[in-house]
Queue: 2 jobs
Job 1
Amino acid sequence: MKFNNLNLIPPLLKAINEKGYSQPSPIQEKAIPLILKRKDVLASAQTGTGKTAGFTLPLLQILSSQTNSNHKKIRALILTPTRELAAQISENVIEYGKYINLRSCVIFGGVNQKPQVSKIRNGIDILIATPGRLLDLENQRLLSLSNVEILVLDEADRMLDMGFQRDINKIMHLLPKRRQNLLFSATFSKEIKILAKGILNDPILVETSPENTTVEAIIQYVYKVDKSKKSELIIKLIKEGNWRQVLVFTRTKHGANKLCKKMIKANISAAAIHGNKSQGARTNALAGFKNGSIEILVATDIAARGLDIPLLPHVVNFELPNIPEDYVHRIGRTGRAGAKGEAISLVCIDEKDYLRDIEKLVRLKIPSKIKPGFEPNPNAVIEPPKQQNRNNFKKNKGKFNHNKKRNHNSK
Ligand code: AMP
């Protein structure tokens, strides 16, 4: 299949050609013709599948084929959960639309609203927004959504995870009833299906990869190691393997900062990216990582979601995520554009249950290794979790005890 066969107009084909894409990705091949036919689409697609172009290209084509009688009106709204994603989508809209005369604007919180507002005032066709800032500006009557013809909900599952359900509901009430809806989500949970039912009108389902399975091109393995030795081990692996461009996941913001400091102390150029960092710091860290001046990006799940970093050779789970689906999102950062990647997880005894849940989800026993000099202490016991996890711990106590017993027996 070629882009030429998708009925895209020449200015878009020219822009695609300049990006160097030889053929549409599976999600693009399926979604673009449906969107051009003005269908509502419910698509399951992870970051790295080319989903952004999958909705941006037809959206640009539809808007450019209609004359905007009142140039002050927003005709397409792209909602996305994080600032980084919003910025990336905006870049894509600009790049794919460079030979089309449409105006777009991106709005997100954490930065001054003035430049965003003046751009909207001058008239835009496409608005890319995170829910909070969108509602904020709407409440101030600085924008109107009453002329939106196309709505895109990008990374809808993450929007729900981040607690945007109420904001989404509010935004839906601000939109005209008659519109085209496109919903993209990495997973199709029960919650997503409910959300989709309330928003989409007779949608066509587009699925590109089986639900919750790991991309085959990724080599996955686990290093069994004690918690207290994890920092030392990751530093050793990075130095020994001469790894460049490594995305490292931690569970907490504090953990990301702490690990980042240790790496810098070990003369590794690293930066942390998480929700407590200012927008400027996050943008700089991402830019540094992309241009190679920062080799290690330490991120929390939410901050890393959707980051557009092509061809990532290594992803390291410094800690396993407690939500198994997050493991799939995390390691999906390595198998991009068909290139092979390695996903390495450092797993201590406390994380045994998480590993078991992940293996169940990906239907794979992930091979494990032990690095000489980092052998886990055979007498290690599971540490009770701190504060916020305490309730879960109580709930799971039986399971942890079970594991303890299993370890004991296997000694
Ligand atoms: P996305 O899933 O939208 O975040 O896109 C992931 C990456 O794939 C981005 O860096 C895009 O520029 C790139 N990409 C999108 N479509 C194609 C294509 N048809 N061929 C090659 N790369 C693409």
Job 2
Amino acid sequence: MNKQLAEFQEHLLKSKKIVALVGAGLSASSGLPVFRGSQGMWKNYNSIDLATPDAFYIDPGLVWQFYSWRRYSALQAKPNKGHEALAKLSHIPELKYLTISQNVDGLLNRKRNDELDDTYIHDPRKLYEIHGSLFTLKCTSFMCNHVERNNFHQPLTPVLEDTEFEYLNKGKKRSREDEGSVQEQNIDPIDIISRQDTFASTSSSPQFQPVKTIDEKNLPRCPICEGLMRPGVVWFGESLPLDLITGIDNFIEHGEAPDLILVIGTSGTVYPANSYVERVKLKGGKVAIFNIDIDDDVVEGKVDRVWGFKGDAAELLPLALEPLIGKI
Ligand code: OAD
């Protein structure tokens, strides 16, 4: 590890152009769950199954409850030192730098506390949030397409209030009984969403707040046309914002080649994000992976032009980047 770290830092100091590819693992130690593996669940649902246009079309109330909980969790969370290390990197004037983030939690855009200066917030010009943001809302009407950014209201509508707490009686402010249109949902009728009943089946398991059936009129509505609003995130099967994808292509392909790509807390399973690592390598750049789960060969330095730093990105990143960004 020390030899690898020394080699990495030597390369880091020589690098003129750096890309970072960020995934859910960066926010894990801020308390936000990752998508894949045992944590990738919301109540009895697989998070990935809820992140689809089909799930929203079939039951927008169910999907809004999931996103309302994610908004609440993200607002409760604080950026960690890993976020701050990337923010610091983005403010080095002589460095050509870009963060490609798959995260929608907004933690790179916030400070841990108000006493910290603005170099603890990522330079927005160098941050491409390719999967959108939990705090953007979009109108679903084709005729309108209104987009509302930086909406931090919580809950977004009164019926979404109880969805903030995942478990019964845990941190719950007050109980809100059925408001006419809101009822408990006994059995999930949705085929495409996989239900895993094992979670709630033992007496020692925590009891989830029931998922409700919510009438569309009680979900967030468009201020312009009254249409149904949806979360401003990219769902599976949807296109990524063309301007961002073009910007990334230009950054990687044009001008001098990137010297380094930092691959932080991502399983690298989603295209096109996972293609950027190979593209930087093809241009002659090196790869540094920060993840709690890395192949031994990589950790031991046996893979050409790849360093692997195994552990919590929130701890390892500030340490590894220290020669450039100073102590955090
Ligand atoms: P995943 O859940 O697929 O992967 C998270 C990665 O973070 C895994 O490789 C973990 O080993 C690693 N990890 C967990 N805790 C960590 C920690 N403390 N420090 C470092 N690494 C840690 O999440 P993503 O790769 O972000 O897309 O998933 C990519 C996309 O798939 C998401 O943006 C989302 C999802 O479905 C959409 O919703 C379109």
